[in-house]
Write a structure and sequence with these properties.
heterodimer; A: 431 residues; alpha/beta; Rossmann fold; Pyruvate-ferredoxin Oxidoreductase, domain 3; 2 domains; six-stranded parallel sheet; six-stranded mixed sheet; 15 helices; B: 373 residues; five-stranded mixed sheet; 13 helices; 15 strands; 20% strand
Chain lengths: 431, 373
């Protein structure tokens, strides 16, 4: 295969920059693998490593600093057959740290080449996540305060299945790159190099010194046995292949007439954990069985099993505008904190309105009728009170009737859940 | 008529699937999470991809990569996530990457109130990206709008190669409502346009009779370049002032030129009305109640509901307001879109009704403000 280098756009690196050598090794690796430009996407980060996409006749994607791995993942998931190569510097490594960890954990078949030259070259030699503390850099004394990170150790800890650390001057660089691309999973090569434009202006660093420094570190080369596992894309397809298609929510057949004409507004005032939202949904479905329009507006806090939970429900023969409650037909008051959150509602009630509540809940004075529901003596658990209150409403023929409620339960629930819900609404006593 | 019961977020997800969206990446955030939940149920069995990103920046980054590789993509978040999306929004604008972005607005600023609604991001969506180039923002009033506007959002993103926002609101997104998808008026599905085969392909070249470059995916037989840098037609960096200016102007004009095709709105005129209520999003529902209640009384009001906020439909607003003495803008913030209306109608009395406390503006408040009772 011939070179994929773009002869009309030759590399523009500083004389002596190790990036140039890496560019040529990457091209040789492509040639060895007999890849055409259409089989490759080169995704580049920002800085000098961000120039790589322009040097090759391949698909190319160049984006924002630190984010190259995110675009690469999107491309690879959409086009699993492509060889996706990411070039990133030690600057992008620091900025996009979360994306590196995610790529290691995910094991999507991408190849990340970290062109590690120990500083932000393009912007003036500032320190990066890999700059030695003793180096002289464009960030004054600040690098003395921070320790460089070992990206290979971090990658292995995060689950990377293939990690190599090597010198940009290694005789085997082409083979290292080719092996990483051939690996079926996420592969990372931390390639140490020299930045003559910035770093070595103030710090002594030679290829020989890089070799010596690497020889003092534990050798990290290739597949990480403990992290060996399925490739993400293949695993994704495997797990999703067994999933049944889902259908949009079904329409509710209209079978009944509502017990009362006109618009009905119902508020359920309760606490999180009392299944307020589910009861609200069932009331809406019951409304749909009678051909009514319906809305369910909910109000709760960010806490999960604590705090108030309120559902405002409108059932109307007309199209519904404002979804808040203006004048309730029914208020179901199931917890004191729910009532306290909406005290203002009670002042607007008229004498046609109905309040359903257990005896221990205090509600503000109003002209509304009060119907007490003694669920405790009926041995109904608090988590069932909201549904039980719907049954009280249905038995009183207020807003809904029994057929609407039973039909809604049949629509919403199946099997054991349906049986126990039916049993509950049956045994609720309104006397 | 039989209805299904759905919340706004579910409607957006189902419409996305119908539009051909096969890639979604998102990060859990109230009140947008149920879009992610729905896409995760819908897409994998269709052979589509749903990813939970490590953060919001990654989520939209995945989408940009997948979009350039040929898939229709969507992401969804709320205000704090839109803040993080910013760098990628400008990328999608400047480098013409189709994507639908749902902002389920919650009460801000900042993390604000996760479970309370607001329309506080309306100017932010327009101006919250570097470069200041225009975007399309569609705003649903109800669950049915969530469905149809999502279909339009994908069509616009594909046609114009740009990000399209759906500015939803907790009070629509997480409110369940009756919907009959079969009876909705739906647009035909539009896909991005491939170039003619008899011409060499340059990724950002614009044919003489078009305002948008043709699209080919990364990964196909013909090589495609994408870059966030200022680029020429070939997708390489350019420093040529004339080329740069020409492209920036085109990016500005490509949306303005199509505006009459996608200025979605409803105009509801009452006889003898001297006041025009202008509203959008969930507040338009209360405004519509006021119209209905007052239409047979002494002082009826007319109503303009905007469903495309950006680019601003200047001509539509000017034309509709012509006959009215007074225009009253209702929005769930402390005065954002009213600035645009005042700009367009400098010779009219433009009043404002707003609120930002997590509660909906109710019809009584609007009546009190317009009748000064």
């Amino acid at each position: 295969m011939s070179s994929l280098l773009n002869t009309s756009r030759p590399p523009v690196f500083c004389p002596g920059c190790s990036h140039e050598r890496i560019t040529r090794s990457l091209d040789k690796a492509f040639q060895n693998m007999k890849l055409s430009g259409g089989q490759i996407a080169v995704v580049t980060d920002i800085g000098c490593s961000g120039l790589f996409d322009t040097f090759f006749h391949t698909h190319a994607f160049h984006g924002l600093h630190g984010r190259a791995l995110t675009y690469a993942a999107g491309i690879k998931m959409a086009q699993p057959g492509l060889n996706v190569i990411v070039t990133m510097g030690d600057g992008g490594l620091g900025i996009g740290g979360a994306h590196i960890l995610a790529a290691c954990r995910r094991n999507l078949n991408l190849t990340l080449l970290i062109l590690d030259n120990f500083n932000f070259g393009m912007t003036g030699g500032q320190f990066s996540a890999t700059t030695p503390s003793e180096a002289h850099v464009g960030s004054g004394f600040l690098n003395q305060l921070e320790r460089p990170m070992d990206v290979c150790q971090v990658a292995i800890s995060a689950g990377a299945a293939y990690v190599t650390r090597c010198s940009g001057y290694s005789k085997h660089l082409t083979e290292e790159i080719e092996a990483a691309i051939r690996f079926n999973g996420f592969s990372l090569i931390d390639i140490w190099g020299i930045c003559p434009g910035r770093y070595t202006k103030q710090n002594r660093l030679t290829p020989q010194m890089i070799t010596e420094m690497l020889s003092k570190l534990p050798s990290i080369t290739g597949p990480v046995a403990n992290n060996s596992r399925k490739e993400y894309n293949e695993h994704y397809r495997e797990l999703s292949a067994g999933l049944e298609p889902v259908l949009p929510p079904k329409k509710v057949a209209v079978k009944f007439r509502p017990p009362e004409p006109g618009r009905q507004e119902v508020v359920i005032l309760g606490s999180a954990g009392q299944r307020i939202i589910t009861a609200g949904e069932i009331l809406c479905i019951a409304g749909l069985t009678a051909g009514l329009r319906t809305t369910q507006k909910n109000d709760y806090n960010i806490t999960v099993l604590r705090g108030h939970s309120i559902s405002e429900l409108i059932l109307s023969p007309e199209k519904i505008g404002f979804t808040g409650i203006e004048s309730s037909s029914v208020i179901i008051a199931l917890s004191q904190e729910g009532v306290d959150r909406r005290k203002g509602l009670f002042g607007r009630l008229d004498d046609h309105a109905l309040i359903l509540k257990p005896p221990e809940i205090n509600t503000p004075m109003s002209p509304a009728k009060i119907h007490l529901m003694d669920f405790k003596s009926q041995r109904i658990k608090p988590k069932d009170w909201a549904l039980a209150a719907l049954s009280v409403m249905a038995k009183l023929n207020k807003v809904i009737h029994n057929d609407m409620l039973r039909s809604a339960l049949g629509f919403k629930f199946k099997d054991n859940t349906l049986a126990s819900a039916m049993d509950l609404v049956e045994r609720v006593d309104i006397t | 008529m039989p209805y299904a019961l759905m919340e706004g977020n579910e409607a957006i997800a189902w419409a996305a699937a119908e539009s051909g969206c096969r890639f979604f990446a998102g990060y859990p955030i109230t009140p947008a999470t149920t879009i992610f939940n729905s896409m995760l149920k819908i897409l994998p069995p269709l052979g589509g991809i749903c990813i939970q990103g490590e953060d919001e920046i990654a989520s939209i980054g995945y989408c940009l990569g997948a979009s350039m590789a040929g898939l229709k993509t969507m992401t969804a978040t709320s205000g704090p996530g839109i803040s993080l999306y910013s760098e990628h929004i400008s990328f999608a604008i400047g480098s013409e990457i189709p994507i639908v972005i749902v902002d389920v607005q919650r009460l801000g600023p900042s993390t604000g109130s996760a479970t309370r609604g607001a329309d506080g991001d309306i100017q932010f969506l327009r101006w919250g990206s570097s470069g200041g180039l225009p975007v399309i923002v569609l705003v649903p009033v109800d669950v049915s709008d969530c469905y149809t506007l999502t279909l339009h959002a994908f069509n616009l993103a594909e046609q114009f190669r740009c990000p399209v926002f759906i500015a939803s609101n907790k009070e629509i997104a997480m409110t369940r409502e009756n919907i009959d998808i079969d009876s909705l008026e739906k647009p035909a599905i539009i896909d991005r346009t491939s170039p003619p085969t008899n011409h060499p392909f340059l990724p950002f070249e614009v044919a003489a009779d078009r305002v948008v470059p043709y699209f080919l995916p990364i990964g196909g037989d013909i090589l495609v370049r994408q870059t966030s840098s200022t680029h020429g037609p070939d997708g390489y960096i350019t420093t040529d002032y004339d080329n740069i200016a020409k492209n920036q102007e085109r990016l500005h004009k490509k949306l303005a030129s199509g505006i009459s095709r996608f200025s979605f709105h409803e105009t509801i005129l009452a006889e003898n009305a001297d006041t025009l209520l202008l509203a959008y999003g969930v507040s338009a529902r209360a405004a519509r109640d006021v119209y209905r209640k007052q239409k047979n009384r002494n002082r009826p009001v007319s109503l303009l509901i905007l469903k495309t906020l950006w680019p601003v439909p200047d001509a539509l607003i000017r034309e509709t307001a012509r006959k009215f003495k007074r225009v009253v803008v209702v929005e769930m913030n402390l005065g954002q879109y009213v600035r645009e209306v005042q700009r367009i109608l400098p010779d009219k009395s433009v009043e404002f009704i707003g609120q930002m406390d997590g509660r909906l503006i109710n019809p009584r408040q609007i009546e009190e403000a317009i009748y000064h009772v």
